[in-house]
Write a structure and sequence with these properties.
Length: about 130
């Protein structure tokens, strides 16, 4: 993500006390192409976030808040929710979903921003 930082002057994530604040992440592949299929694009966005979390030795279990920005929110909401539930399990973080007209990359359907707490331990799953 160094090229995004250098070219567009933003940090993909910053440490803020005991929090990792992740910038909005699109479903871009490593070659900066975008899957046409909504489920594939949403999955790629979460995989990109997983990579960022791992750089801070975190997982999705450490996520306390998520904001997602959607082009075609109602049209793709069920598919997005299905994909989200493969990455974020109970106890679920706070989540705000916002419908928007467009995102920075043409064809992008979602941008996801996360906040994760450092040093948390996920409670045991029943």
């Amino acid at each position: 993500m160094r090229s995004m930082h250098d070219e567009h002057h933003f940090a993909p994530g910053i440490l803020d006390g005991d929090l990792l604040r992740c910038s909005g992440m699109l479903g871009l592949r490593p070659d900066l192409s975008l899957p046409a299929d909504p489920a594939a694009q949403f999955t790629q966005a979460f995989e990109n976030l997983r990579g960022l979390l791992e750089l801070a030795s975190l997982t999705f279990a450490d996520v306390v808040e998520m904001t997602s920005y959607h082009v075609g929110l109602r049209r793709h909401f069920a598919v997005f929710a299905e994909v989200k539930d493969r990455f974020l399990e109970a106890p679920h973080p706070a989540w705000t979903a916002v419908g928007v007209v467009e995102l920075a990359v043409p064809g992008a359907l979602v941008e996801i921003a996360l906040t994760a707490r450092l040093g948390t331990v996920a409670p045991p799953q029943n």
